[in-house]
Amino acid sequence: MKKNILIIGAGGVAQVVAHKCAQNNDVLGDIHIASRTLAKCEAIVASVHEKKALKADGRIEAHALDAMDVEATTALIERTGARIVINVGSAFLNMSVLSACLATGAAYIDTAIHEDPRKICETPPWYANYEWKRRGECEQAGVTAILGAGFDPGMVNAYAKLAHDEYFDSIESVDIIDINAGSHGRYFATNFDPEINFREFTGQVWSWQDGKWASNRMFEVGREWDLPVVGKQKAYLTGHDEVHSLSQILKVPNVRFWMGFGDHYINVFTVLKNLGLLSEQPVKTAEGLEVVPLKVVKAVLPDPGSLAPDYTGKTCIGDLVRGVKDGKEREVFIYNVADHKEAFQEVGSQGISYTAGVPAVAAAMLVASGEWDLGKMANVEELPPRPFLALLNRIGLPTRIREGEIDRELSFS
Amino acid sequence: MKKNILIIGAGGVAQVVAHKCAQNNDVLGDIHIASRTLAKCEAIVASVHEKKALKADGRIEAHALDAMDVEATTALIERTGARIVINVGSAFLNMSVLSACLATGAAYIDTAIHEDPRKICETPPWYANYEWKRRGECEQAGVTAILGAGFDPGMVNAYAKLAHDEYFDSIESVDIIDINAGSHGRYFATNFDPEINFREFTGQVWSWQDGKWASNRMFEVGREWDLPVVGKQKAYLTGHDEVHSLSQILKVPNVRFWMGFGDHYINVFTVLKNLGLLSEQPVKTAEGLEVVPLKVVKAVLPDPGSLAPDYTGKTCIGDLVRGVKDGKEREVFIYNVADHKEAFQEVGSQGISYTAGVPAVAAAMLVASGEWDLGKMANVEELPPRPFLALLNRIGLPTRIREGEIDRELSFS
């Protein structure tokens, strides 16, 4: 039974993770939050106290940490006695935080693949570029490392595994659809760090089709989907971590990821990209100042955290799975709908951060209880989905299924 | 008889001015080009030699000069013996260059109103904000200062004066229409310094309607015009220097300026403006670097000078004048059509620079000959238009007139 959590990062998702850990600290124990900027960690601690989120008596503490520094992270894990590390910091940190977990035996949980800051849109196989190279190390050390335990990747991987185990004899395709039908009321804003947000879309789009990688340009392939609650929404083929793991682990011949974008978002993105303002390569002004254009764009855009109080509307994210069951063609859509305003009222972050953060806490609770504490590296679809989805039904992200005319909540008890 | 020219500035317009001066150096004498960057002046000198543009034997020389420094400019005028200064540098320099002319007795010619770098879109009366305050000084010193002697302002002022003198008993309205129907083949570029270009459009739009100033937002009032050669083109009400001088000097009740913009230009402009990327107020990046967003936009956009070799198509700029003649309503369109490619072949700049630079040289030739050497400050519409337009017919910008079904070249001999 592992206890005591170290949260790496202090952004919107870390805020959600801290609140959810606090709401479940009878299971999870002490909570520590660490990032480069101590004040941001302290603000999260203050907001947890303000909401009286701690279920049981217990500690929640802020720490300054450069998590690129493996020794410093190792020392902090040892000093705090944390046995589970939830890494929701920058995507550049994964490998160093994992190293600190290996050094201490603490379990590792993240919500997105590792990225090299010098590379934009790395080509697949994504997990095999960094994470999976260290499978052997984890197994030898008996260290549990759960990769991609947010919503997408994360819950959508559990949905695919559930469909694979219970709804199909064979799966032809998994289309993961991510729609944010919410509104922040600003001219333009990204829902998380603009630097990371834009990096996802400036290169090629990779999808897994007919058992091999296919490449498109961003916004080249769009399709209108008719979804529960949010209705008809246009989404575009986009590269995403789980396309790689699901295609390899569940051996599905078609795995595609579709991200919803409004025409306005696409227009702003296209203008900025074509002008060169999304470039991470420095330019020199007429006055001789060296500047990275993307960092200036980030500076003029609203801080994603500032959007939460005014955010209204819903997200709908799920897996449309097609295949064969008992000799007949079948199609199911397994999904969750989350509400921005409710998320803000509960944990002080908007719905996008909420859907990313809550599953990581569910994963931590299953590691704490031993159910997911495998002592090796695993993607979510390698783990039993029922306890995960049952817990998420209870702690804020209920799963529904739509098949033909029937649309109902899924129960896992 | 004044001789010897000092050109201030070394951009696209200065290039045109230098070539045209060289083509007429039998009248104008020595040519000196001065700007902060000596290399840019030297490049212009080299291009004049390369085209063998000098009509008669004579000097053309490059000088390094900060024209904000009145003493340095005064010294350069004295050292070179220049009696006519053509200021086609930044709009921030007008008042200091004028001071140097007053100190030396040299004639002053510019092509745009003075601007304070700290103010965006100053409110009218524009000329009365800076230039006209110094009318008395010029008259006392007997210094000729010709304001706004480019195309617009410049030729369009002469067109209005010609209409006033020869085509109408009373003028109801002057609509100045500026269409660039050319194509540079890039995703987006401005035709002159992006910093100055965008500054024109980020504030309010002022026009003179029914004998008073009226204010609109940029791109609020658009109208499709059917023009010679370039056909149907959409243009938008825009603030412009000559709206002020024409309304005051010719006492016309309606003076409006219409600038042509394609939907694509407006879209890019709108995105950049709404995001705050056209701001001249510094922002701070996450890394703590202070940057002026507009200067970064300028750094990523193509250098306007680099567009010239690939520029194709035509400009059409003119005055649509409505009023009464002999008791009957009358409407004439007096205009010029210029060609980007021909301009580049002749002087190495595109058509926008060509139309701005050639009239300034015509003004200098009329000062040299004495016809426009009034010994005081004047806007173009205060000067006889016929010698100016006759000269421009001959040196590259012929004037045409359209009235009803008839469209013909105007001859002034």
Automatic annotation (TrEMBL), chains A, B:
This is Saccharopine dehydrogenase family protein. It comes from Mesorhizobium marinum. Residues 150-396 form the Saccharopine dehydrogenase-like C-terminal domain. PANTHER family: CARBOXYNORSPERMIDINE SYNTHASE (PTHR43796). Residues 5-146 form the Saccharopine dehydrogenase NADP binding domain. InterPro entries: NAD(P)-bd_dom_sf, Sacchrp_dh-like_C, Sacchrp_dh_NADP-bd. It comes from the Bacteria.
